[in-house]
Amino acid sequence: MLRLIKEMDYLHIIFMSTISELLIKSYDRIKVLTFAFLFIVFFLWQTTDPAFAGNLLQNSGFEEGLNSWTVSPATATASATASTKHSGSLGGLLTKLSSSSWAYLSQKITVEPDKYYKFSGWGFLNDASITNIKLRFYWLDASQSKISSNPTEKELAVKGSDFQFMETESTLSPSTAQFADIQTYIYLNKANPVSPAIFDDLLFESVTPTPAPVPPATPAPASTSSPTSTPTPTSIPPTAIPSSIPTVKPSIILADSVSENSISDNENQPEIDLSINNAMETTPTNEPEVLGANSAKTSKPSLPLILIIAGTLLTFAGGVLLAYQEVKAHQVKK
């Protein structure tokens, strides 16, 4: 029995040493699998960022300079600048050095008819020489001609020392729309501003329209019963009395007083009804407040640490499994 225990201990030592040797040989394989998994997680994290998921624009953050963007008119000047940007490394600068008036950067993209689209992004406006900046887009037909001369746009005219969020309304594309002309627009009242306009983190996307809130029904005014007229008692003709006794007409006086009260009630009642109706008409209804869904840019989510840990454990387990298979193969060879 003691001999059997010693042999089992010996086999255990051999097995563990073989496992250790194979794990060392498989270390590079485990490392490659781990890095591959981490790369996949990082790629999914970047591509599923809610701020840019479904973005139809190319080079929307100007990280590739002015690639995919066209500058208009020829007198305008545009560049990618690192000095002022909302995020990343670069932002899109647009200005005019020798003349005033308008300028824009544009990009034409393919759209589907009868779908809702929205344009949003961040703009920097902090110079008195710039009247306003805009995010806007036009619908184009199959020949890339404007379907309408009226764009969907969002204007920013208030100066600020930081980037400001801009967002157009969700707009339904016409049935003949095939393209959209996306533009970042500026208007200068004086050439060569000291602080040019900057655009960054632009987003043009297809959206599902949010139904307009239905205001609560206003209760119908309570019915007001019409005043009941007070019957006027019939006056009793006075009885002839000797002239030495004064004539008293209590019934006539009662009739007159009742009639006056009745008339007074009938005149005041419509005024009371009218005031009630007016009060009910002018009573404000508590309509739900609709908040902008993109009042601020969505921040990038934190790296999913749990997935990384789980992936590391899985890849390590895979390496152990590979090592075990090699141990079995080694035993078979023996």
What is the structure about, briefly put?
This protein has 334 residues and is an alpha+beta fold. It has a domain at 70-207: Jelly Rolls.
Describe the structure.
The chain has a domain of 138 residues: Jelly Rolls, CATH 2.60.120. Helices cover 32% and strands 23% of the residues. It contains four helices and eleven strands. Strands 2, 3, 5, 8, 9 and 11 form a six-stranded antiparallel β-sheet that branches. The chain has a five-stranded antiparallel β-sheet with strand order 1-4-10-6-7, with no helix packed on it. It is elongated, with a radius of gyration of 42 Å. About 19% of the residues have low confidence.
CATH evolutionary superfamily of the domain at 70-207: Galactose-binding domain-like
The CATH architecture assignment of the domain at 70-207 turns out to be Sandwich
Estimate the mean pLDDT confidence. Answer: 75
Number of helices: 4
Beta strand %:
15-25%
Q: What's the CATH first level of the domain at 70-207?
A: Mainly Beta
Helicity, as a percent range: 25-40%
